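Build the 3D complex.
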Amino acid sequence: MIAFVIRRILQAVVVMLLVSLLSFTLFRYVGDPVVSMVGRDTTFEEREALRGELGLNDPVVIQFARFVKNASMGNFGMSYEQRRPVLDLITERAPATIELSFVSGLFALLVGIFMGVYSGLHKDGFLSKLFQSISLVGISLPPFLVGILLIYGFAVILGWFPSMGRGEVVKLGFWSTGFLSYSGIVSLVLPAITLGLFQMTLIMRLVRSEMLEVLRTDYIKFARARGLTNRAVHFGHALKNTLVPVITVTGLQLGQIIAYSIITETVFQWPGMGYLFLQAVQRVDLPVMGAYLVLVALIFVIINFIVDCLYYVVDPRLRMEGPVVA
Amino acid sequence: MLMKKSFGRVFLTAAAVVVLVLAVCIPAQSKTFKWAFQSDAGSMDPYTMNNTMTLGFTANVYEGLVRHAKDESIEPSLATGWETIQPDVWRFNLRKNVTFHDGSPFTADDVIFSWKRAISKGSDMKSFVAGIKDIKKIDDNTIDIITKGPWPLLLNDIFRWYIMPKKWCEDNNSVEVSVMTSTSEETYATRHTNGTGPFMLKSREPQVKTVMVPNPNWWDKRIDNVTEAVFTPIKSAATRVASLLSGELDMIYPLPIQDVARIKKTAGYQAIEGMEVRTVFLGFDTSRDELLFSDVKGKNPLKDVRVRKAMYQAIDIDAIHKKIMRGASWPAALMIGSNINGFDPELNKRFPFDPEESKRLLAEAGYPEGFSIVLDTPNDRYVNDESISQAVAAMLSKVGIKCKLNAQTRSKHFAKIASMDTSFYLLGWAPMSFDMHNTYFNNVMTNGTTISNPQPGQGNWNCGNYSNPEVDKLINAMTSEIDPAKRQEIVSKAMKIHKDDVGHIPLHQQALSWGASDKVTVHQSADNTLSLRWITVK
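Done.
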């Protein structure tokens, strides 16, 4: 087990290094940070001097080595635009993204399972057809379009929910939460649906097909033969057995939700990390971009690591050390 | 019966609670104004970034010696009056009994401190105070500004230079402007303010929300009735419009061109349009001996004025005005618009659109088959910038010039053209001083990096290095000419030579468009800034 964990950690380090290298290479193509940092009256010489002070004239290899060295000590440098440590900016913005991701994950899971179970049980019902159509929309429409449609429907025409922002937030130490005020909670609704719609659809389709599969198995027939109620059969036996793949997918999708919040956050002017990243790209704020990409990679690596460990625990075949003889 | 009675009581109690809550939440006097722009102010420290949004935003908090009236004319602000006691000495009488938001008095020392801060390392105010040689304190309410020679445009230059309190900056470690290096951190003044202006900063979350409240001790008579002003930057244009229509915001800018008609048709909303001070134009490489990115080898066709004029006359500006700008532009023949000091209506007549003449001129210059060229254009900076460039490329191809587009995001575009790595580019310029000198000094004067002993910043954005010694001489001469009529003569002469030279191809002034609810009245400044002191909320 320990060997497995060590191997995994080493692999994770390699992945992180690769991601940093890739993002570093990309930085060469996003433009000149100095243009966004200075006013238009700044002379050519002053621009060159600034470039030198920022270390942008050094070869890429040296810049990369410096970045890895500082990042490994948790120092991501200073935002070019805001002149504040990047880590402070990210900790300030993280609660908004985490709360949004949590709510949309929960929404995807609960609604997805409900719709999946229902349409699995009532294959040809009217509601099942409706759910199927909704899932088609969720899979095929890109999030920015869903977001704008929701804003026009529910904010502009109906006026039920706010169209942007987080509403009133309450500070609990370093954490700012929107859960403790009415405007904070209603502000979450539209972005959470936008962000979670794709995952909801995925879970619904997964649960539905698993349900259809499980309902055909022998133990369900035996359960019915034993005279158990429908409720006990459907939820006690059938649903429980469909959840294993759902949990795996949800775990992996959690990383996706955090990473893909960039678009949703921009449409809803949600002050989270994704929005911070997008603004950093436009302003060529390299330290912020670097830190964000590394952070997202880290989240994915950690989730995958946990999932791998869980498999290891669950599946005895993986525990065999050394080469596997077929 | 009992049920009914208790229901009634519950109902009454509930109603009473609702009324009470409403009464507490919405005091009769509350006039909140909520507005959004597409980006946030770069800093609350007005010296860090010479950018219209940042300076316009902080103008609600800080004030200069002079300010703009509604018609963009100069009027007294922290100075009550001034006179030139010698050609290069201006005496300013400072307003008495003015206090900063923290209650400390405003004096001559603050002005001198602010000047020193404006010329310190890291300050982006240097061009605003470039004409000032020294400032002498006469007494607490009088100063002498000594200029580098006669400097008639001093007031135009300094209206965006705001006075910051000496003691507050010293106490809060903000004497220096936050310098842009890899390790230097923001100063206290980046997110805190202490000005003399009509509004005080209540809270500031960069890129999220900024709240301001009126300054009860402001020296001037209040025109506005705003009790709280909430600013949110909203990047996505669709969201910005939606937030206005859902009633969450009272005013947004810019309003996308395609939404103007819709906002006008919607009851309860208004679209406010006007000419922006910015002129969008095309520039050429007129200095290299061989054109970059072209099939012409060993020579540069753009050095020939006939070729430049052929390109000018191949552009159908009316089509751009009608089809691309949807009528929201003012075709231009000068590098400045009619709202800029120095404008000459006689000269603002474009060479006519005439493709046949273009072909003739090209043939005469020795390029009957045309040549190939690359047009550098931003795609996220000006209104429909990429579409304009596409149209220009298509129009040029009709007279035989094969024009390829290189459309990029603004940070890439500006870095490329600023290093003069271009042969044909699109750029826009808004003279912050509202005077033509700013535009011509930056864009038309010989690029300072190509000559010895240039003036700082001269021709910084003359990316194709158009260079005409006579024009340079005239631009220098106009800075020290005090007589307005004589100055206009010099100005017109310089602009005429540049126009006949086809040094650049001016395209148009774009329109400002703001969207607002009918509940508010706002005043649109020509430089696209919003002053809270002119806002009334119904």
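Chain B is about 30% helix and 20% strand.
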